[in-house]
Amino acid sequence: MKTDKIELNQADRRLLFAIQRDASVSQADLAEKSGISASQVSRRLAQLKEDGVLKGIVGVLEPERAGLTCSAIIRVRLRDHAAANVKQFRDLVARMNEVTLCVMTTGETDYLMKIVARDLPHFQEIVQSKLLRCAAIAHMESSIVLEHLKDTTALPLDEA
């Protein structure tokens, strides 16, 4: 994936804004919303994907309706930042389908993770069988999510 910043024109921004809201709409609808022709929509989307701006077009699921009723935020501090510890932790995260977000942070916490589980016993099983067995982790602290006030994948692009 390319890492250089891509300059987006107004049509690109309107197109990306529209597909973030609902990517299942027709190309004609996307064309109308972005102010370009329907044939340009597919070319622009292909170019935005090639440029690395558009990672993919996916369906966004409602976790509870899909049987995943427990979410938790976990703060992780590694034993130290030796390459082997970092690799062990990153490899663990890559293998865990329950992790929906993991970011390296500044401050006392090295990583912040979001885990989604079927229920509280399933979350406990994940913690005990995976996270607590990782020798790279010195300390972890979890908070169960009680309510989602906002949970979006949409980036704050200007509509116009």
Give your account of this protein's structure.
It is a single chain. This protein has two domains: 10-50, Orthogonal Bundle (Arc Repressor Mutant, subunit A); 70-144, Alpha-Beta Plaits (2-Layer Sandwich), CATH 3.30.70. Helices cover 36% and strands 19% of the residues. It contains five helices and four strands, in the order αααβαββαβ. It has helices spanning 10-21, 27-34, 38-50, 83-95, 120-131, and strands at residues 70-78, 99-104, 111-117, 137-144. It has a four-stranded antiparallel β-sheet with strand order 2-3-1-4. A hairpin with a 6-residue loop joins strand 2 and strand 3. Helix 1 (10-21) crosses helix 2 and helix 2 (27-34) packs across helix 3. The longest helix is centred in the N-terminal third of the chain and has 13 residues, at 38-50. The chain is elongated and about 55 Å long. The mean pLDDT is 93.
Which labels suit this protein?
alpha+beta; Arc Repressor Mutant, subunit A; 2 domains; 36% helix; Dimeric_a/b-barrel; sequence-specific DNA binding; Leucine-responsive regulatory protein
